[in-house]
Amino acid sequence: MKQRIESIVEQLKNRSPLPALTPKSVWDAKLDEEIAALDTSALGGSKAAIALKAALHLWNDSLDVSHSYAQQIEVDPTGGYWHGLMHRMERDYGNGNYWFMRAGNHPVKALVQQAAADYLTGIVGLDALPANKVTKELIRFRDESGWTSEAFTDIVKLQESGGGLPETREMLEQLQHLELKTLFRHTYAMC
What we know:
Elements: H1 2-13, H2 29-37, H3 47-59, H4 63-72, H5 77-89, H6 93-102, H7 107-121, H8 133-143, H9 149-163, H10 166-190
Helix pairs in contact: 3-4, 3-5, 3-10, 4-5, 5-6, 6-9, 7-8, 7-10
């Protein structure tokens, strides 16, 4: 099973284009079937195994299926985190932030905060973009290590409502992908 999971993960890591901030449909229907067919019973039906299925489906933009798994483990911090990501991606921002709060001080949040600052530090021209709320928040994420899952949700909402630029959309998609990969690594290590 490990080999099948790693094959799926490789496809998801290298997908092009990156997952949209708020996807409209499943990215790869065949891959979604492969994810659904994974027999995680070897993992004992643990919360980690359920979180793994929620993660892979979400990474493949299969929001409804991911949601069904996340709901089974929503009292677990990692399950709550996946639940929050799913709601953010479906544009249910308030519900997403509720689940991020329920995930508490999840260790992945600090990892993503640092990785977001590092990524944004490498963006040439960020300071030269027209000043708007999205750009200002990205600069804050960079300069103050100000990224939080809740603040990121708010900036995604602003971008999706027309308050950002094409350049900031690309940066936000990179940050969301970074968050998905980081939380996935944590989830997979728990299995």
